Amino acid sequence: MRGATKGAIAVGVFLAMAGGAGYGMYAMVGDAGEGGPAAATAAEVGSGPPTAAEVLTTARAFLAAWAAGDARAAADLSNDPEATQYAVADYRTKAHITRAVITPGTPRGALVPFTVRAEVSYGGHGKPLAYASSLTVVRGLTSKKPLVDWQPAVLHPQLRKDEKLRTGTPDAPPVRITDRNGKELTAGAYPSLRRILDELRARYAPRAGGTGGTELWIEPARADAPKRTLLTVDPGRPGSVRTVLDAGLQAAAERAALRYQDASVVALRPSTGDVLAVANHRADGFDAAMLGTTPSGSTLKIVTAAMLLDRGLVTADGPAECPATVSWYGKSFRNQGGFSLSGSSFGTAFARSCNTAFIKKIKAVDDDAALAREAREVFGLGLEWRTGVASFDGDVPEAAGAEAAAEYIGQGRVRMNPLTVASVIATAKTGVFRQPVLVPADWDHRPVATAERAMKPEVAAQLRQLLRQTAVSGTAAGAMAGVPGPKGAKTGSAEVDGRVNPDSWFTGYSGDLAAAAYVAGGGHGGEAAGPLVATVLRAG
After folding, report:
1. Cys-Cys link to 375, which of 288, 315, 396, 459 (CB 3.0-4.6 A)?
2. What strands, in cross-sheet order, belong to the sheet with 503-510?
3. Using CA atoms, how far apart are residues 61 and 72, in angstroms rounded to an integer?
4. Phi, psi of 533, rounded to the nearest 5 degrees
5. d(CA 364, CA 120)
């Protein structure tokens, strides 16, 4: 070793740790008069800026004490003894840096560069650590001795005021989130899933398995600031959470949502309730697909129609009144564009999304709670859904007077999102509410919501007939033209205060795949939201 380092010794000193533990002893090697034991003590007290000899001698002595793990000796050679002592002691006991070899370079005035080669050892794992730093020698204000001007950056160049080096295991092992087929889902590949992936990691990390890694990091001065990793000693083994999402459908939904500045899409499997895709394209990053709370317009007529069919007040092929306008409790309601239908069936009124045909039935229902009960007891809206992440599960409150009429057509105090609307058409398709889930319920044994009653078979059959008619010859026909059958759909346009154009809503199914989309200010449901749903259905 002496021969190999002879060139460096000519301008400085080589400090090598001896012994298996790496601390407690050090060897100093150098030319006589420059690298001997006398160099380990501070120079005699002088005046003015430190001389070249004082700089070299003080730097060597300080680095020797540091390399030896002698925090007290290093502190005595510093102009901030308390901070120095803690930092040098922590270097070994809390940063777990051992086997330090510190090599001074050629001084440049009062500044002395040096390199550090050491090992970070923790939990049975070790990894080499190498970096360069520097120190400056100044004259003590009161003692007049040459002293190292202590700064955290002496210990490591990336350290700032009040920051510390620490080595240990992160709070939790990393968690890998996968789709139903085991493909990893990342926010980089699927930006819409960022909120969901973050929440899944936070919620399921303890159950995900895996082992934590070991890192050397900089502990920030502020508690709310992130730590900065300097070295990964052991990457650990990530845990895993498998969702029921489908990476292919997720990619299709992401691409579809990009067509509009403020759009959200959800796809799910009616036979199971599995959520297959969740996509948003919004400047604010809000997950409106699962957390949105806004009226869903005429898509709610699926629930209203089920309630009317269940009470025997309408049939799919039976007659229905559809005037251009209707008044209820002093408030006038009209059909979009002011159209009317003469001698039409209820199926045609549904397919054309005739508002007045629904409001004309309020008097016959004669029950302010009827729609709210249908929404809750049959379609599961407003129950506590446990999807695996936070979600808003819909709200169709009891209403009276003009407000009840507004709710019949999905306005007023109705609050929905693409997740709940997709669930509504999925329930209509199968006749049974199955709570949407992102993570299988049996994975963490959480209870899922169940509806009080299933739809009567004759009601479910007629409801599917209405949805098919809408998809084939009604307001959804244009968007659903290229979607294979068996299929069904419903459009919606929701007027929201402060917006020039109504929000666009659309929901549909094809086989065992259902989807719903929302475009803020998008206008008619078939024109904006409809193509988004059709894209996802064709991708399935």
Report:
1. 396
2. 275-281, 263-268, 513-519, 503-510, 487-494
3. 12
4. -65, -45
5. 79
Phi, psi for 469 (deg, rounded to 5)? -60, -40
- Tens of pLDDT, residues 432-476: 999 999 999 999 999 999 999 999 999 999 999 999 999 999 999
Instruction: Give the Cα separation of 533 and 515 in Å (integer).
Output: 6
**Dmax over Cα atoms in the chain, in whole Å?**
114
Q: Phi, psi at residue 47, to the nearest 5°?
A: -140, 160
Range in 71-85, 256-270, 485-499 the model is least confident about:
485-499
Packing angle of the helix pair 370-377, 301-310 (nearest 10 deg):
100
Edge-to-edge order in the sheet of strand 164-168: 164-168, 214-219, 228-234
**CA pair distance 403, 400, nearest whole angstrom:** 6
Vertex 464: Cα angle to 461 and 465 (nearest 5): 85
Query: Position 406: which residue type?
Result: A
Residue 537 has pLDDT above 60, yes or no: yes
Give the Å distances, CA to CA, from 72 to 69, 266, 460.
9, 64, 83
Cα distance between residue 508 and residue 529, in whole Å: 11
**The tokens of 379 are what?**
């379609």
pLDDT score of 63:
98
Report d(CA 373, CA 381) in Å as an integer.
9
Length of the chain: 540
Asked if 213 and 174 touch (Cβ cutoff 8 Å), the reply is yes
Other beta carbons within 10 Å of 415: 19
59 closest CA partner among 1, 133, 163, 152: 133
pTM: 0.72
Beta strands in 18-85 (DSSP E): 26-29
Instruction: Please say whether the beta carbons of 464 and 508 come within 8 A.
Output: no
Q: Is 31 exposed, middle or buried (0-12, 13-18, 19+ CB in 10 A)?
A: exposed
Burial of 452 (0-12, 13-18, 19+ CB in 10 A): exposed
Regarding predicted confidence, which is higher, 387 or 22?
387
Within 10 Å of residue 187's Cβ, how many Cβ atoms? Answer: 14
DSSP-based three-state secondary structure for 272: coil
According to DSSP, residue 192 is labeled G
Query: What mean pLDDT is reported for the chain?
Result: 90
Can you tell me which residue has the tokens 């409106």? 288
CA distance 58 to 414: 77
DSSP 218-251: EEPSSTTSPPEEEEEEE--B-EEEE-S--HHHHH
What angle is formed at CA 290 by the lines to CA 493 and CA 385, rounded to 5 degrees?
115
